[in-house]
Amino acid sequence: MAVLQITADRPGSGKSSLAGAMLLHLASVDKRAAYCKPLSKLGENDLDVQFFSQTLMPEDSLPPAPSLDASSQGATGLDAALSTQLQSQISQLKGQADAVLLEGPDLAGSDGLASSLSFEIATATDSRIVAVFRFTKELTADSVAQACGPLGDRLAGVLINGVTAYRSQQATQILGTELAGRDINFLGAVPEDRTMLGVSVQQIADYLGGRWVQDPENLDARVERFLIGGNIMDSGPSYFGRYSNQAVITRGARPDIQMASLTCDPCCLVLTGGEEPAEYVKAEALQKGVPMILVDTKTIETADSLGGLLDLATSHSKQKIQRFLHLLEEHADMDALASLALG
Questions:
Q1: What gap in Å lies between CA 317 and CA 201, rounded to an integer?
Q2: Partner residues linked to 184 by β-bridges
Q3: pLDDT tens-digit map of 275-320
Q4: pLDDT tens-digit series, residues 50-101
Q5: Do β-strands 292-294 and 211-212 pair in parallel, antiparallel, or remain unpaired?
Q6: How many CA atoms lie within 13 A of 15 on its CB side?
Q7: DSSP sequence for 283-331
Q8: Whole-model pTM?
Q9: Integer angstrom CA distances of residue 295 from 144, 175, 202, 250
Q10: Alpha carbon 212 to its chain's center
């Protein structure tokens, strides 16, 4: 039985997605896996810990994700008391599960400087480390090797995540080969995916500071695309029916566009200009369960502002974790990852 620590080069690189996908994979082959996020200063209130415990780890099949009091933990080194507590916690989990997945800190601290915390945690828990790197066109084998240097022989492999379209050859054939040449185990390159970048209807409303036109529902619906409803030449179904999981942005004073979009079951309507829709539009949206968000800004201004919303996307959706597992099975060495987890 092994302990596998998952770290990353920066926030949002995919640590939680990888841990969640591995939990699902191990469960599918009848292996019990535990999850721990030891350096969260929020403890049991950490959203990752809550999601894993409540959604990915049913009480009747897996031990709950433990929470540790890391409120006093600094970024320069592992506190001795916490190290002892962590050793005890991991020892207990080893007795309950076939594998322990430990979500560690990022390779660099908030100041951008290299951190030794992942290595210290690995030493305390006798864990191997998989490092997840968010792909950028500037990412090189040298920069990966430098970031992983403090991990020493605890490093078990590197996974590249979020590879943009038309860059797969650079990530797999060039970067992967160069990493292997530096004796770094290259575990694969996962492409960028719309499902993983999706946000919920509730997140859209919160981000825009919008008002609900009527009692909202289906607030957890995942939005993968935004479509502007303007003076379109195509028919409603032809224009609005091209994609699923979309939100439509249009003026509140355009009931024709709103009705046309509702024929294609959007996740929500974002109505701009501060003007409420017609009553028959409200009735149609209510019947179809489509929430409507009203904002005072203009359509293009609203659409432009949503560009920063992707930074709020999280992996707290079982559908997203299942999708990431599928991506791993297609583009990474899932057998190698499972072997590292099981020891």
A1: 13
A2: none
A3: 999 999 999 999 999 999 999 999 999 999 887 787 677 788 888 9
A4: 788 777 876 544 555 555 655 555 555 677 877 888 888 888 888 888 999 9
A5: antiparallel
A6: 25
A7: HHHHHHT--EEE-SS-HHHHHHHGGGGGGG-----HHHHHHHHHHHHHH
A8: 0.81
A9: 43, 45, 14, 10
A10: 27
